[in-house]
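Structure first, sequence second, as always.
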């Protein structure tokens, strides 16, 4: 590829023996590739988001590296509880957490609670209390970084 232009004032193109350089760059292949990539990203973007939609509060602390896949209990703005993507009824929360902690008591010792910023304080406390009664020794709260 080359650009048009005069070189040395001789009236010839940029390349020796070429007479005249290319007058414009063909951008059609570039546009085709960009459009294909755009379509791929548009199709795959909804699959990248997983879990329950929650508006987390912001924090300025760094996150800790995870040793294994964490257990996450989510509390939505309407007060519903989810373990992963599975909905848990409030009255069955303690039993569900106990079954979860009993399945692998050696490796399961911590749980993380994700709560929407609009959740009533009592719903978060109910989740923490059920987690403690179920046998989880470490209860963490999740949030978004403010970056």
């Amino acid at each position: 590829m080359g650009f048009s232009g005069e070189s040395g004032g001789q009236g010839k193109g940029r390349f020796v023996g070429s007479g005249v350089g290319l007058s414009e760059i063909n951008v059609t292949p570039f546009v085709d590739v960009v459009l294909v990539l755009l379509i791929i990203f548009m199709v795959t973007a909804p699959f990248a988001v997983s879990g329950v939609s929650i508006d987390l509060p912001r924090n300025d602390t760094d996150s800790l590296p995870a040793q294994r896949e964490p257990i996450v209990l989510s509390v939505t703005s309407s007060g519903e509880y989810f373990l992963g993507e599975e909905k848990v009824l409030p009255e069955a929360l303690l039993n569900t957490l106990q079954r979860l902690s009993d399945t692998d008591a050696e490796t399961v010792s911590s749980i993380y609670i994700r709560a929407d910023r609009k959740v009533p304080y009592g719903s978060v406390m109910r989740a923490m209390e059920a987690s403690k009664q179920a046998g989880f020794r470490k209860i963490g709260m999740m949030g978004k970084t403010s970056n």
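Margin note: The mean pLDDT is 77.
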